[in-house]
Amino acid sequence: xxxxxxxxxxxxxxxxxxxxxxxxxxxxxxxxxxxxxxxxxxxxxxxxxxxxxxxxxxxxxxxxxxxxxxxxxxxxxxxxxxxxxxxxxxxxxxxxxxxxxxxxxxxxxxxxxxxxxxxxxxxxxxxxxxxxxxxxxxxxxxxxxxxxxxxxxxxxxxxxxxxxxxxxxxxxxxxxxxxxxxxxxxxxxxxxxxxxxxxxxxxxxxxxxxxxxxxxxxxxxxxxxxxxxxxxxxxxxxxxxxxxxxxxxxxxxxxxxxxxxxxxxxxxx
Length: 269
What we know:
Elements: H1 2-8, H2 13-130, E1 133-137, E2 140-144, H3 146-160, H4 164-177, H5 184-197, H6 201-214, H7 221-234, H8 238-251, H9 256-268
Antiparallel strand pairs: 1-2
């Protein structure tokens, strides 16, 4: 201001005062203008801050809601998982019970099958003991009842033990029980031998001749003929023995009994 006055020179007091007042007004208006701008900037800044604060609050609220929803979802998920686990436990328990029952039923079924198999085998054995079976004795094959077989084998076992009297009785009983048996020819042969051993020569001759008449092709027939000759010799019937031995050689020339008969005939001359 002083510089300006120095340039224009001294002014009257009123002019000086007017200029000074004008300058003061200009300065005041400039100050007022700067305050309004600052106030406006502050208001804008406050508005922006409030806006940002609102956005932050909304974001925070949204995050809280999302977190709450997520937590609720997790809780619901855990509850559903717990429910599924409980259902699986119940199912496993049920399956375990079913498995145990099936295992028990299987064991009982296997036991029943085993018992049934044993009963079936026992029944088959009983049936087999009652049904005829195929046997072969002295080269002859035939069907025999189980009791028939047991009785013959019992009599033969007694004979082989040397109890000839008991064997004789058993063979007589066998022939009485089974007169048409396939064992009959063999039974007659062993009966004759038992009687020969007990010195019942006449009965022995009768049974040996019954064998020869009944089954002349039987493997024991040549021996039966030789046994007849032996009985005749024991009875002092030398003539009858010679004829029997000669008949043996003629009827069964290739047999071992025929060879023995030839030797016996030579000794009797």
